[in-house]
Design brief:
The protein has about 650 residues and is an alpha/beta fold. The chain folds into four domains: about 5-90, no CATH class; about 95-285, no CATH class; about 295-440, Rossmann fold (3-Layer(aba) Sandwich); about 445-640, 3-Layer(aba) Sandwich (Rossmann fold). About 50% of the residues lie in helices and about 15% in strands.
Length: about 650
């Protein structure tokens, strides 16, 4: 005997016996019991509580505070409990019960519609106790049908259907189009719940700002058979008392253009349903993943002010877009009033886990503009890089029930708390399912990107479009661990110039905004007027956005200063022959964790033959060797590994 059968058997008997019991109780008692049951579900059912809160936040993030959203979520669970217990008590419902506990607005529209002798399509939604509404409708109008979807548990499904038939409601299985047509031809009304859908043939229509699949059958039949459409919904006013509202479809479009009419009417239906939900959010069934089929993803990138970190985060966002998602990226450079409390927050979050309490603390320590952008936005994915924003990522992703993606080791925050951690090999990543190991810093370098950037530069200077072998030089600057001195650059440039003359090669050079002034002066002195130097860009004087990509695209051999993990990673990702210009460590860095990890990064790449790590004095020998032997470059492809992990979590 299967586990599902046992569960179904227990649930069926519990529901049947509850119906007998509730028939002997005053409605106010089992409604109160349902409220308590719903409140218990809210506390215990974390999975559906998160779904409800996420859906609420998506719809109301601009209008309601987190506290108000949490209140509505709790009330929606309580209302679900009331509806459930009220549905179990359906055997006691009769015309006297309906007359006592239900009031109606617009009931006359039903009679007027049926007078047309074309049947009636009655559109409703999962608002209030829709099963009680069906019962009332069946008692008032015997010739009515309801389109139903078979439930997962067979016993409960049969019991619920028996309750529905008790009130004279004829059941039509979802997808049984001929039965619907027959009902309309017999001038019957057909009720359809139109706010859930994911069947073949459904159309995607905007619903609260994102497209969702919606059933098209009702509108198609209305257009074909000229059957009138009415909207109807039920809301609980207090206790066991309800109000049923029925309204005509005033903006129904029937111009003769079938496709346009179909689209216009589906949009109008969703707008009408939105209006009902906005008015009664605590009575709507939010526990369904209504937007799960939407390809739209709102991405928040937390920018800590470091260009390399931002580029890696943008790379992840681009990978997500390339997976086929319609992405909307928001970049927030957050600042903190109190760095001590910020560090304390990271420690507390690591110790005690995620909670809405941390959001209140974040409001205190973060600048007002940044916090308001965060709290007034809705995000499906939160991306951060570097340890300083790891805790903030967890707080925001928890509030939005979003996917949390972090790049590099997250400091105090536990790696397991993120949906995905992208960690370079030199950070010694743990062997967890949510961790992907990379060889270097993520970047957007690929063959198409290099061709595009090279074409932009060639358009500005056609002399660069020659078949002569080119040597690219990418220079960074000083960091806490490394010094780029005029002496080192002088030694390197002298040797590069000599090789370019001996081998008839051209030189393309760009600096970065970090490059020291005295190094820039050395470059200008050595290369200005030197005929083999076809490009010299001093970024602090006149930067060209496509410079790095173009030089990587046009060069056969690339020399890059070794102090920047991002810059070295971009060079290696270009599949060119890469020489990393080694630089002296600052004295204190040789003992620091950062310095050791940086060194390990370079040594790993050298060991796997992605780079040739050489000092300035040896550059000439290495250049001559590479030009003579012409080995193939080796491409570092971290994007593929990250893409596979992202497919799993998205």
């Amino acid at each position: 005997m299967s586990k599902n059968f046992n569960l179904d058997y227990i649930a069926y008997n519990f529901a049947r016996m509850s119906g007998v019991l509730f028939s002997r109780l005053a409605p106010e008692i089992y409604i109160w019991m349902g409220k308590i049951f719903g409140r218990m579900l809210f506390i215990l059912d974390k999975k559906h509580r998160n779904i409800v809160y996420r859906n609420l936040r998506f719809v109301f993030h601009k209008d309601k505070s987190p506290q108000e959203l949490n209140r509505i979520a709790r009330l929606s669970f309580e209302n679900l409990g009331k509806n459930l217990f009220e549905t179990l008590a359906l055997p006691r419902v009769n015309k006297e019960y309906i007359d006592k506990y239900l009031t109606f607005e617009g009931k006359n529209f039903i009679d007027e519609a049926l007078k047309q002798k074309r049947g009636l399509i009655y559109i409703t939604l999962h608002l209030g106790n829709w099963e009680l509404s069906n019962a009332a409708y069946g008692l008032m109008h015997k010739n009515c049908s309801v389109i139903v979807k078979e439930q997962k548990h067979n016993g409960l499904n049969q019991l619920l259907n028996s309750y529905r038939r008790k009130f004279g409601v004829r059941l039509i299985e979802l997808g049984a189009l001929r039965d619907v047509v027959r009902a309309l031809e017999n001038n019957e009304s057909v009720s359809i719940v139109a706010d859930h859908g994911a069947r073949k043939g459904d159309k995607f229509v905007n619903f609260f700002g994102r497209e969702v699949p919606v059933p098209v059958g009702a509108v198609k039949l209305a257009l074909k058979f000229k059957a009138p459409i009415l909207f109807g919904y039920i809301v609980r006013t207090h206790g066991a008392y309800h109000k049923v509202v029925i309204e005509p479809f005033r903006s129904f479009s029937d111009t003769g253009n079938k496709e346009n009419d179909l689209d216009d009417n589906l949009v109008a239906i969703n707008k009408q349903l939105e209006k009902y939900i906005h008015a009664n959010p605590e009575q709507y069934l939010w526990s369904y993943k209504r937007w799960k089929h939407s390809k739209k993803r709102s991405i928040l990138i937390l920018d800590d002010g470091k260009v390399g970190h931002l580029r890696q985060s943008q790379t992840v966002a681009k990978i997500i877009q390339d997976l086929g998602f319609d992405t909307e990226v928001t970049i927030i450079e957050a600042k903190f009033y109190n760095k001590f409390i910020h560090h304390l927050l990271k420690i507390c979050l690591a110790m005690f886990g995620r909670s809405r309490v941390w959001l209140s603390i974040l409001k205190i320590i973060m600048d007002k503009d940044s916090f308001e952008k965060i709290i007034n936005g809705f995000f499906d994915i939160v991306i951060s890089a570097g340890s300083s924003f790891a805790a903030v990522n967890l707080i925001i992703s928890y509030e939005n029930k979003a996917k949390s993606i972090h790049i590099m080791r997250p400091g105090f925050a536990s790696v397991k708390r993120f949906d995905l951690v992208i960690m370079p090999k030199h950070d010694n990543p743990p062997n967890y399912k949510n961790v992907v190991e990379t060889g270097g810093a993520l970047n957007l370098i690929n063959s198409d990107y290099l061709k595009e950037e090279a074409a932009k530069l060639v358009k500005k200077d056609e002399s660069l479009n020659s078949n002569i072998l080119k040597i690219g030089l990418l220079l960074g600057g000083n960091t806490k661990e490394y010094r780029l001195t005029p002496s080192i650059v002088q030694k390197a440039i002298v040797r590069i110039k000599r090789i370019s003359i001996e081998t008839n090669t051209e030189i393309l050079v760009t600096t970065s905004r970090r490059t020291p002034k005295d190094v820039e002066e050395v470059l200008k002195k050595e290369l200005s007027g030197f005929k083999k130097c076809k490009l010299l860009i001093i970024a602090n004087e006149k930067n060209i956005p496509e410079a790095v990509g173009a030089i990587l695209g046009l060069s056969t051999i690339v020399i890059v200063s070794a102090e920047s993990i991002s810059m070295v990673s971009e060079a290696v990702s270009s599949q060119k022959l890469v020489i990393a210009l080694d630089m002296p460590h600052k004295d204190e860095a040789i003992l620091s964790d950062i310095g050791k990890r940086h060194r390990l990064f370079l040594e790993n790449l050298e060991k796997q033959k992605y780079i040739y790590l050489v000092e300035a004095e040896q550059i000439g020998y290495k250049l001559k060797e590479l030009i003579k032997t012409k080995p193939n470059g080796k491409k570092l492809d971290d994007v593929g590994a990250v893409e596979n992990k992202l497919k799993n979590i998205l």
